[in-house]
Amino acid sequence: MRHLRIGLDWLRAGLAAFQFLTRLPLPFQIDYTERVFQRSTVWYPLVGFVIGVLLQLAGVGVAYAVPAMPGAVLLLGLWVVLTGGLHLDGLMDTADGILSHRPREQMLEIMKDSRVGAMGVIVCVLQLMLKCSLLYTMLDTAKSGQHSQLLLVAIVPIWSRWFMVAAIRHWPYARPSSGLGSLFRGVTGGYVVTSLLLALIATMLYMLALGSDNAALWSTVLGFLAVTLLCGIGLAAYISSKLGGLTGDTYGALNELIETALLFTLIHFL
């Protein structure tokens, strides 16, 4: 009975991860508690995988149905809809705070303001334009018969969401007593390792489903991991140096920027 209860607790945490990170029409409502929030992070890579597969399937469809440019806009629109713009909102708030070049406490106050400032809008527009241009390049390449870039889009959200878990664990929280991100303070190293294993398994199974050989499989896994760590650690360290730690908004910003870096990597190396 005890094992069943533990299993149900983890299942509830997994459903909470989908409820929190996506706008998928789920037929239930999970009550958030600190424990549920913490355990839900283990499932973040799986949530990313579901988002990625939906994007990949939609990408293949629009690649044949419409020209590359409107197809890229539609695909990016779906990406935003699937997440409810959650991470973009974090990126805008982070940009408003850090690019204000104010003292730390004032930066954090600016980030709490529900109103979006000029720097947040500018960074958001640049982010969407860059992401759209990368998707356009992939769709244009797919129209010529080269689908490898578009197929690997499914893996991108896996790793950006895994790094959010790593960031929660390895950088201090800038607002110890307030903010949604404070609910994640109990995330342990075990959660990070478990979510990493889930990210690795999801990536490997997807690559095997594509018929990849061992060389392609391991080069893809190690490549995604390396780019994620390189960009994620650099960005998290910079943001933490400005704010004295990370916040819920900065986790979203990290996700957005790592996704873009991984898309750029796919185009550059494939």
TrEMBL record:
A single GO BP: cobalamin biosynthetic process
InterPro entries given in the database record: CobS (IPR003805)
UniProt pathway annotation: Cofactor biosynthesis; adenosylcobalamin biosynthesis; adenosylcobalamin from cob(II)yrinate a,c-diamide: step 7/7
Taxonomic superkingdom: Bacteria
Cofactor dependence: Mg(2+)
Topology with respect to the bilayer: Multi-pass membrane protein
Catalytic activity as recorded in UniProt: alpha-ribazole + adenosylcob(III)inamide-GDP = adenosylcob(III)alamin + GMP + H(+); alpha-ribazole 5'-phosphate + adenosylcob(III)inamide-GDP = adenosylcob(III)alamin 5'-phosphate + GMP + H(+)
Keyword field contains Transferase: yes
Location, primary (coarse class): membrane
Enzyme's top EC category: transferase
Subcellular location: Cell membrane
Any Gene Ontology CC annotation: plasma membrane
EC number assigned by the record: 2.7.8.26
Regions that span the bilayer: 42-66, 72-95, 116-138, 150-168, 189-209, 215-239
Keyword line: Cell membrane, Cobalamin biosynthesis, Magnesium, Membrane, Transferase, Transmembrane, Transmembrane helix
Pfam families the record matches: CobS
Gene Ontology molecular functions: adenosylcobinamide-GDP ribazoletransferase activity; cobalamin 5'-phosphate synthase activity
PANTHER family: ADENOSYLCOBINAMIDE-GDP RIBAZOLETRANSFERASE
Family to which the UniProt record says this protein belongs: Belongs to the CobS family.
Biological role: Joins adenosylcobinamide-GDP and alpha-ribazole to generate adenosylcobalamin (Ado-cobalamin). Also synthesizes adenosylcobalamin 5'-phosphate from adenosylcobinamide-GDP and alpha-ribazole 5'-phosphate.
Name of this protein: Adenosylcobinamide-GDP ribazoletransferase
Organism: Paenibacillus roseopurpureus
